[in-house]
Design goal:
6-stranded mixed sheet, about 230 residues, single chain, Rossmann fold, globular
């Protein structure tokens, strides 16, 4: 069985500074895979290369067996990649509904109506359709950012630190939403996450990054305390 997403020997540099060094990754269809590591090791840069916002200097990206390495970010979005950046990046002056409509426009799929299942997945957004994005709590803004990526009905959802700065009860909610996307809609998910308990509870596989390389990987059951201490403790 070939992987849904496959990254092969990815390299990336900012000028003379090498950031990603020969990264290989395979994510099976209908699973949640997590990239972990301390701050500044290249995790966000890796995601930006996967979704096409940065151009790798070497290596290949395959999705569903097709080489998408040369595709621009918008082409990858049309192909079925949804991206939720770190820090949410919602539009604070637009309403919840308008933020979701912007997501539809950006994907350029020709769709104009927000799918109703967005509001059943995120009931809090249904109650706040007319409220400005900037008036939402951090957890509600994160749900809006995820919903905005989901309006395009992606096959692969890429999330950068979805639990950052969010209260514990909402972290659990977001984890359960992510799990339901996989179990009920067959979505495949790649995320960057620092919160080890979240990874253990919701992810199927992990890879730990250090200085632009993957230094450990495996099924989440193998993510033990010695590994956390060695690669993730501050």
């Amino acid at each position: 069985m070939s992987a849904f997403l496959k990254v092969s020997d990815m390299e990336f540099a900012y000028g003379e500074v090498s950031v990603l060094r020969g990264l290989d990754l395979e994510v099976e269809e209908g699973t949640i895979s997590c990239v972990m590591g301390r701050n500044g090791v290249g995790k966000t840069t890796f995601l930006r290369n996967v979704v096409g916002l940065e151009k790798s200097s070497a290596g290949k990206v395959f999705m569903e067996g097709s080489d998408i390495t040369q595709m621009e970010a918008y082409e990858r979005a049309v192909r079925g990649i949804g991206y939720v950046p770190q820090g949410r990046q919602i539009f604070p002056l637009l309403s919840v509904e308008e933020n979701l409509s912007v997501g539809l426009e950006a994907a350029n799929t020709g769709e104009r109506i927000i799918p109703e299942n967005i509001f059943t997945t995120f009931p809090v957004l249904d109650q706040m359709r007319k409220r400005k994005g900037g008036d939402l709590s951090g957890g509600q803004q994160q749900q809006l950012a995820i919903a905005r990526a989901l309006v395009t009905q992606p096959k692969l959802l890429v999330l950068d630190e979805p639990t950052e700065g969010i209260q514990p009860n909402v972290i659990t909610q977001i984890g359960e939403i992510i799990r339901s996307l996989v179990e009920e809609q067959g979505m495949t998910i790649l995320l960057v996450e620092q919160y080890v308990d979240f990874v253990r509870k919701f992810a199927h596989s992990f890879q730990v990054m250090n200085r632009g390389r993957f230094v450990a990987k495996g099924n989440t059951s193998e993510l033990d305390e010695s590994m956390v201490k060695k690669h993730l403790s501050v």
